[in-house]
Amino acid sequence: MAIRNALFVLLMPALFLAVGLALFASRPALPLSLGMALPAVPYVLGAGVIILGAWFKSPRVALMAVLVMGTHGAIAQFVPDLESAGTHGAELMVLYGAVAVLFPVNALLIATKRDRGMVSRGVLVRVLFFAVQVALLIVVWDAGEAARAWADEVLHTRLFDKEFDYWSLLPQLAIGLFAVVSLVLLARAAWTGGAIDGGLFGAVAASALALHGAGQGSLPAIMFTLALMALLAAVAQESYRLAFIDELTGLPGRRALMHDLQAMPGLYTVAMLDVDHFKKFNDTYGHDVGDQVLKMVASRMMRVTGGGRAFRYGGEEFTVLFPRKDVHAAVAHLNKLREAIAEASFRLRDDQRPKEKPVGVKAMEAAQQKTVKAKDRAIVSVTISIGAHGRKQGESSDAALKAADQALYRAKDGGRNCVAV
């Protein structure tokens, strides 16, 4: 499941980056009208991303869009076409160098912030940090040639041989920071499986390409547009997750089930599953353990055979949908699933586990009691009852689902831990 989520959230950023690299390689000639309109696209798209970020209470998305838009504006203003401006102008050496070095630093600060509302101390601190950087850059710029020369020397410090950066306009420091930050965000997105984390990685990587291509016609504007599109795609993926994916189990929820049922007019089998005696289990062990049980059942349901699609219907009830399969063919796969869940078991977590690691005498006592406590913890397992119904010709999806629910009641009345049709 973790691998699937990682692939899902990184698919769109990878696609946008592939498009960006292809454009760098081909350098396509754009129509004059498109070339003239392109510099405005990041502003329009960025405004939309900021609005969506605020709507979904994701300051990370909104702040990253502001950072991308501001960087695009700075590059468009201070880094003209290299063919006519040369490569050693003051704007290029100081302003461009500062923007290139500071972008990955700010991006990392944004990406590692938790989304806790648009108006929070974390958001205000980052906005203030942005403002301080702009103010310092203005001060250095207005301080005269000596200050600019010092800033130029700092920003273009070479930690490695010039072979490390000869191929790019980016300073060595910026190349190193972009590499580290991109790897950190990539690992974070793969670990969390969060769409927003994937979009932030895509935005940073595409912005690195934009800064690398500064002064090369429309390429920077195109790359910044792709960066904002990665954020936009991330918001779309996150909204889909909120609407269709159950947060506890990771399975598609009831809304996804009803959507699939209504889009499936032909032959199919729908099965309703219920965890046996779940209320009693919750009363005995607590809701936290009950959640562990639901996650365990969901993990087994994700591996259902026969082309079945698993959903969480609500509470301790689940659903499996078998497209283009009659009920008799589906029963074998449902029994296999039922047996897999009945055979699964896990040891309850230790509720008395200390929040901090004990030291000294406490550590020795804890080590001595560890084995005893592990033996005392209960090993639990659950069973499920299943009701299956094959859709009849002309039968509505609601009627098919109700028939499966009635079959579930027959399974419960029949002794539980069985499949009824």
Compile the SSE list and pairings.
Elements: H1 2-26, H2 32-37, H3 41-55, H4 59-78, H5 82-85, H6 90-111, H7 121-142, H8 145-155, H9 172-192, H10 195-212, H11 219-244, H12 254-262, E1 268-275, H13 278-285, H14 287-301, E2 309-314, E3 317-323, H15 327-343, E4 346-347, H16 361-376, E5 379-380, E6 384-390, H17 397-413, E7 419-420
Parallel strand pairs: 6-7
Antiparallel strand pairs: 1-3, 1-6, 2-3, 4-5
Helix pairs in contact: 1-9, 1-10, 1-11, 3-4, 3-11, 4-6, 4-10, 4-11, 6-7, 6-8, 6-9, 6-10, 9-10, 10-11, 13-14
Descriptive account of the structure:
This protein has a 5-stranded mixed beta sheet with strand order 2-3-1-6-7, with helices on both faces. The protein has a two-stranded antiparallel sheet with strand order 4-5. The longest helix is centred in the middle third of the chain and has 26 residues, at 219-244. It has 17 helices and 7 strands. A hairpin with a 2-residue loop joins β2 and β3 (317-323). It has 2 domains: 2-243; 254-345 and 381-420, Reverse transcriptase/Diguanylate cyclase domain (Alpha-Beta Plaits). The chain is of the alpha+beta class. 38% of the residues are buried.
